[in-house]
Amino acid sequence: MTDLAEVLAVLDLTPVEGGFEAGSLDEGHGVVFGGQLLGQTVVAAARSMPGKEVKSVQTVFARGARGDQPLEIGVEEMHGGRAFGSVTVTISQAGRLCTRSLVLLHAPDPDLIRHGATPPVITEPEATADRGQGAWWDVRYDAEVDIMDPAAVGPAQLDVWTRFPGAPQDPVISQALLAWASDGFLIATAMRPHEGVGQSMAHVAISTTVLTQTISFHEPFDAGSWLLLAHESPYAGRGRSYGRANVFDQSGALVASYVQDNMVRDFPEGQAPAAGTRSAF
């Protein structure tokens, strides 16, 4: 079973000329989880521009990565100023581009104005169902919600409590771990209103993948403490879905937001995986 030390190991990038190298967490799916690539992108950008915080990451997922080969992470500076900086981060494997991201970094200024969205009123995490992600990643949401069951129907909303117990008190690692967590729930949120479609069918009976994701960090937070990921999917159609989420700490402060464009479609003719196997898309 995966533990937090293994997760932190793949976020501990090895410097090389032009960027970094990294390994992957083998979760037995044959393809690297997109959230891992987002987390590694956050770390690569932050380490390339010390003294600034990552403000936003805009990522296009071009193709999947394999868990049994190293990742090459290229970083190119676009701009470096006193208040703002920007870099591109490209993750490749065996010469094939997997993701490319535009990352904005900043040195925060004192407030001139301030407001933030308020969280939905939901059950506290200790009273919600433990979804069994393992000791390293605590995921909980309403016991009456089953995103895996194609027969379970509900609104295109999903409120998820998450934390990484024992995570180090490191703001960059906290951002990387939230980026990791952010990748996994918006496709399932889009499926909820549609009977006959569920997360358990992804990569088996239907073809799904994250196409693009943008995550913006608003306030410092601790990924080892509870965070509420409040998801909604206002649109699905034409083989795609769109979703967005606000992230709140347990005090109700808005600490981050993210949006995704996804693919949700039937497999093209002749491309469905064989029985008992999974596809990367």
Task: Give a description of the structure.
The structure is a single chain. Helix 2 packs antiparallel against helix 3. This protein is 15% helix and 37% strand. The chain starts with a helix and ends in a 16-residue tail after the last strand. It contains four helices and 13 strands. It has a 13-stranded antiparallel β-sheet. By secondary structure, it is mainly β. Strand 11 (227-237) and strand 12 form a beta hairpin.
Low-confidence stretches: none
Strand content: 35-45%
Series of secondary-structure elements, N-terminal to C-terminal:
HEEHEEEEEEEHHEEEE
Note the main sheet.
13 strands, antiparallel
Query: Could you give the count of β-strands?
Result: 13
Rg of Cα set:
18 Å
Tell me the number of helical segments per DSSP (H or I, 4 or more residues long). 4
List keywords for this structure.
4 helices, 281 residues, 13 strands, mainly beta
